[in-house]
Amino acid sequence: MSIESVFSHLRATGYTITSPATPDYNCVAWAAKENDRWWWPDPSGTSYWPENAPREVTLDAFLVAFAALGFGICSSDVFEPGFEKIAIYVNAQGEPTHISRQLNSGRWTSKLGLSVDIEHRFDGLNGSSLYGSVGRILRRAL
User: What global pTM score does this model have?
Assistant: First the structure.
């Protein structure tokens, strides 16, 4: 299955593969600038999750997890010098499905599950049946 078949909007907006596929980390870890462990709030505790954040797949739990890293809610995806931004995607039920991180160029980077990392436009992954759409944008000062 190709990336474009899952994320059809990428065909129109463009993307670049920036690293090979690996099971070592996921999009949540990548958003936290880690590439050596899997982040997920699974109740069994087999994946890393910040200690103070609830182990549940809710937007609130993800907000607590990233608040521990210094992120707060932001209303715009527009690049702001001196800040780093992430976008939390949610499905139709409001459950987090993916996180992208903004690069210094203003473009975004995503780890696609067990697959590759890509660089893309902010709206490149929006509307897919797999990730849904952006539910919240967060930022932290650099």
Answer: 0.95
Task: Write out pLDDT tens, residues 14-35.
Answer: 999 999 999 999 999 999 999 9
**Amino acid, res. 108:** W
Q: What is the per-residue pLDDT across 56-68, written as a single tens digit (0 to 9) for each?
A: 999 999 999 999 9
Residue holding tokens 């993916």? 98
Across the beta sheet with 15-19, the strand order is 15-19, 117-120, 108-111, 96-102, 83-90, 133-141, 72-74
Closest CA to 100 of 47, 29, 24: 29
Report how far residue 142's alpha carbon sits from residue 103's, in angstroms, rounded to the nearest whole number.
12
Q: What angle do CA 100, 98, 21 make, to 5 degrees?
A: 80
